[in-house]
Design brief:
single chain, alpha+beta, three-stranded antiparallel β-sheet, 2 helices
Amino acid sequence: MAKNRREVENPILTPLFPFRKPSKAPQISYTKCGCGKPASYEVYEDRQPHCMECFEEALDSSTFILARRLYGGFDDAS
């Protein structure tokens, strides 16, 4: 049912909400290493994000680990 003009212009029936600017600028989100640096590698079977320094530290271990580069260049749509 269409509203008549008095219902539309009545300030009690149509509350106005002023536009509010966001208080903080949006943060760029990217994957971070445990040390806080941006990650560029996924290491271990559960794909933990690591930066270059932590990646090299993980490679120095005596056990076999899985590692791959984030953001690709591979054919797996990464």
